[in-house]
Prior knowledge:
By secondary structure, the chain is mainly α. The chain has 2 domains: 30-72, no CATH class; 75-214, no CATH class. Helix content is 56%, strand content 0%. The chain has helices at 32-42, 47-54, 58-63, 76-82, 93-110, 119-126, 139-159, 161-172, 181-192, 198-214. The longest helix is centred in the last third of the chain and has 21 residues, at 139-159. The model has no long low-confidence stretch (mean pLDDT 79).
Amino acid sequence: MARAGRKRKAGARTKAGRLIAPAGQRIDRGTAELRLHRAARAARLDPAIERLWRQGRAEEAAAGIGAGDHGQAIDAVGRAWLAGLLAHPARSADAMRDAGRVLFKLYWAHYAELAPSGGLYHELAGRGVVRSVAGCGDVERAAQLEGALNRRLAILDDCGRDVRRAVESLCIDHHFEYGPAWLDRLIAARRAGRRPDEEEWRRMQAALLGLAALA
């Protein structure tokens, strides 16, 4: 006797068959501590907020940071964007950031079985942006994603090995809440008004070259 399949979830769906999130659905932004850490990586915190945080009053402190762009600190390319490190003469910083995130989505959609356990992957997976296609039986969809990924990787290869490595470090490697270390140091130097390390600055410029080619 055949077993019954999993019940289909009720609700409106897209043409592709994916559930549409209800309007006004609450977004889980993480714990107060996590939101404060992200805000601190995005910009220098207000002294009053820092004081509340040090006193162990994280909920009160987090209420003071709102829900602004510090949420972009959820990944490395977002932190670079917040720090003003994605400036380019021919591409907007938003386009550069988004190009990096598209690369991330395509890469981990293709290699979902190796996907990291960090916050960004789970957020994207929960929204249906990233999902494994290896076992879903949708061969055409898998081929489309692989083709889109390979085209982007070929563009990076044409830019040179250093460019590809820099973009992979910034956009693909598992740097969700902090890192890569070279980017953290660049951001710290910019906040302190110090001259950045030349090698790390060259790596950032290489990443910019690759992102501009993808944007």
